[in-house]
Structure prediction request, 396 residues.
Amino acid sequence: MSKVVRYGLIGAGNQGTYYTKDIINNGVVKNAKITAVCDNNPAKLKRISEILNNDEIKYFENYIDLLDSNLVDAILIETPHYFHPEIAIEALKRNIHVLCDKPAGVTSLEVRKMNEESLKHNCLFTMMFNQRTNSLYKKAKELVEEGKLGKLQRVTWIITDWFRTEKYYKSGDWRATWDKEGGGVLINQCPHQLDLLLWIVNKNVKSVRSFNEYGKFHNIEVEDESTSIIEFEDGVTGVFVTSTGEFPGTNRLEISGTKGKILIDSNLDSKIYLFENEQDSLEYSKVTDEAFPKLKINKQIVETDGTNPQHKEIIRNFTEAILGNEKLYVDGKEGIKQVELMNAMELSGWKGGEKVTLPLNEVYYTKQLILHRLSSKDKKSNNEVLDDLSKSFGTY
Ligand SMILES: NC(=O)c1ccc[n+]([C@@H]2O[C@H](COP(=O)([O-])OP(=O)(O)OC[C@H]3O[C@@H](n4cnc5c(N)ncnc54)[C@H](O)[C@@H]3O)[C@@H](O)[C@H]2O)c1
Prediction:
């Protein structure tokens, strides 16, 4: 292979345009170039061909033609979520490296097939979990792994700063529909936080109860507010709150253990606070004579390297991994964990907050989703591409 990775983009909408125009075409990522683009909407193809303005790039309306063109070493999957596993599987079968945007798919059943296919081939498969490149969350994971918090007890993430308007929901016919998107805030905005939560806590989820509100703030059929109670293994409890109808929202992660807690509030100051107990609180509780003790706490802002390179770092690392120069940062197969948790949250929500246990009954979930898809209403939209995506990424 040459020293430059030849990329094919599949799905030339908002996100695909951002990666090709602002990241790859601008030379932000070295050793990468766009050689082919596919979109099944000819108007989108025309639009991106004018933006990229490069005669060497070939354009396709059918992604299979792009994959068979011999023009690409790797693809970026930037279509609506239902297509992610299907396109990834076809690419992997042709030994084409895959960078799939989040979420890995709509159901863990489909994502499982994609993971199984990836094991059969000697090509790289990664997910666009760009928020894993934020030094704050990398540090949080490090602190948990080092045992700084002792035995983990509780994790709370309030992520309600995903404010979205009717204009946003009208911008695509697939958005916020059961049939073409497969969910609402949980599937569109929250894959990042659900992935980070599972990545940092690094424990299996045993069960979840979710209270979801459908079209509470917007004229949509899917959830735009969700509150979940999560039971992890080893007695760790979790609360996850999200909304696209709250302003100003909150992006606050708190993780507590017997030796202390960490707090990251990205709306306040984007720093990581570590509160360390002078000793393990539950050990102390067993031996102390005091009824209402206040242990001494060492509170500090933990230094990080301050980096937060996001999407460009995932594409850079993927490129260098393909060229054999680096290890892949995100194993694509991990995308299934976040999808399974999200599916459990949807299922519990549909059942009015009933407890759903994991591993999820994937076939049952898929059947329930089909029922929702059948009741889905067609949406009229001009499928416009939105300007200034930078405001859409939330607080990193
Ligand atoms: N990582 C992030 O920060 C981030 C941010 C936003 C969106 N995303 C993800 O990117 C993906 C795309 O989102 P978007 O906002 O760009 O959507 P979009 O609607 O703007 O773009 C999707 C494009 O895919 C095209 N398309 C649909 N089906 C296709 C098919 N079968 N073959 C080829 N093209 C097809 C559509 O015509 C459209 O142009 C979603 O999965 C979304 O979750 C990721």
